């Protein structure tokens, strides 16, 4: 895939994933200026989680003063939050919101190679494992250090939230871009709870026992998760899975235009069980009334990384020039002065050894490293 195509896919992917997560996180906000908001505010408040700010900005004053803010959106690959197996944050997106500059977002590829600060001995790790090894606060801190931008807020949504959202709107119809088989029980093409999707068709087959299939024309939540989770059979790998995620999100956005489908106490209470955020209900209302401007378009900040196999594992490596480029755009969107990007691979470089093959990617076309 050439750079232009990769950039186009990144823009398109970023917009749809952001909209999908924001539907779940902020659905009560943009319709929240009436009595419906009051009826769901208690449920939204149940999702509030306080985090340690670890030297970051004082978040209680940022929105009150109308300053640009940043929100780290994370989607975990588990079905329930706060369980022993926390899962990984397979969707990571940093969003900046400014009254004057609108919304900027950057999707951080899940396979991005890093050394986790404080856990450099485990190098190499993928960025989606930071949450698994640590917690929300440390994940925010790692992203902040890596890109040298403040991370003010977070929203953590798990797969259970997506499943409930699809079920709430009565299911969706999505035309599959390829033929594949996937089991939600084994995460492969065999086992119970087996799905068969067909290229160019919205119809699919499902067998709870893995043998006796029935045909369906509309996906419920479980089917949507099966459709979006498969990666190994897709010749395009994570790019293909991202496309399928986008197709699902597109249908969710289309059907969620009717707020009465979503804004009710029962559903919001259900969603709150699958959502954690340090945005208070008051913060959300302030964002809706003071920051939201439909005339300001969402701008995606693309990230161009290089694929690299190391120790038998596929990674994405962000070159230092690209890391600086992303930092520059994020800081500008937050009305901050220019600054040097964060540490190489996020961690303390004195505590781990960077392989030569990785260095070649990191410092490609970077004359300053010579």
UniProtKB/TrEMBL annotation:
InterPro entries: Cro/C1-type_HTH, LytR/CpsA/Psr_CW_biosynth, LytR_CpsA_psr
PROSITE patterns from the UniProt entry: HTH_CROC1
Residue stretches spanning the membrane: 16-37
Domain named HTH cro/C1-type: residues: 138-154
Entry keyword Transmembrane: yes
Keywords of this entry: Membrane, Transmembrane, Transmembrane helix
Pfam families, per the entry: LytR_cpsA_psr
PANTHER family per UniProt: POLYISOPRENYL-TEICHOIC ACID--PEPTIDOGLYCAN TEICHOIC ACID TRANSFERASE TAGU
Annotated family: Belongs to the LytR/CpsA/Psr (LCP) family.
Protein name: Transcriptional regulator
Natural source organism: Secundilactobacillus collinoides (Lactobacillus collinoides)
The organism's taxonomic lineage, starting at the top: Bacteria, Bacillati, Bacillota, Bacilli, Lactobacillales
């Amino acid at each position: 895939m050439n750079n232009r195509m990769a950039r186009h896919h990144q823009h398109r992917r970023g917009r749809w994933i952001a909209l999908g997560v924001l539907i779940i996180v902020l659905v009560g906000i943009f319709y929240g200026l009436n009595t419906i908001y009051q009826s769901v505010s208690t449920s939204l408040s149940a999702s509030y989680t306080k985090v340690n700010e670890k030297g970051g900005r004082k978040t209680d004053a940022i929105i009150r003063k109308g300053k640009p803010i940043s929100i780290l959106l994370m989607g975990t690959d588990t079905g329930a939050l706060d369980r022993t197996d926390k899962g990984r944050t397979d969707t990571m997106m940093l969003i900046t919101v400014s009254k004057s500059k609108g919304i900027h977002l950057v999707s951080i590829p899940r396979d991005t190679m890093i050394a986790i600060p404080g856990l450099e001995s485990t190098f190499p790790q993928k960025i989606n494992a930071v949450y698994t090894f640590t917690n929300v606060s440390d994940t925010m801190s790692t992203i902040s250090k890596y890109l040298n931008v403040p991370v003010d807020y977070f929203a953590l949504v798990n797969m259970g939230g997506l499943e409930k959202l699809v079920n709430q709107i009565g299911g969706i119809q999505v035309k599959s871009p390829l033929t594949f088989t996937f089991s939600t029980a084994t995460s492969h093409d065999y086992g119970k709870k087996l799905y068969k999707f067909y290229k160019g068709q919205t119809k699919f087959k499902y067998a709870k026992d893995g043998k006796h299939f029935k045909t369906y024309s509309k996906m419920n939540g479980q089917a949507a998760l099966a459709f979006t989770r498969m990666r190994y059979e897709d010749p395009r790998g994570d790019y293909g899975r991202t496309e399928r995620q986008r197709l699902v999100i597109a249908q969710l956005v289309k059907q969620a235009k009717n707020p009465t489908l979503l804004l009710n106490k029962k559903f919001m209470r259900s969603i709150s069980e699958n959502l954690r955020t340090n945005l208070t209900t008051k913060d959300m209302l302030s964002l809706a009334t003071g920051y939201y401007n439909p005339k300001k378009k969402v701008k995606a900040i693309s990230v161009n990384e290089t694929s690299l196999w190391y120790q038998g594992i596929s990674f994405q490596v962000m070159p230092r020039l690209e890391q600086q480029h992303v930092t520059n755009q994020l800081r500008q969107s937050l009305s901050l002065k220019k600054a040097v990007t964060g540490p190489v691979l996020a961690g303390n470089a004195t505590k781990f050894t960077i392989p030569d093959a990785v260095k070649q990617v990191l410092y490609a076309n970077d004359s300053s490293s010579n």
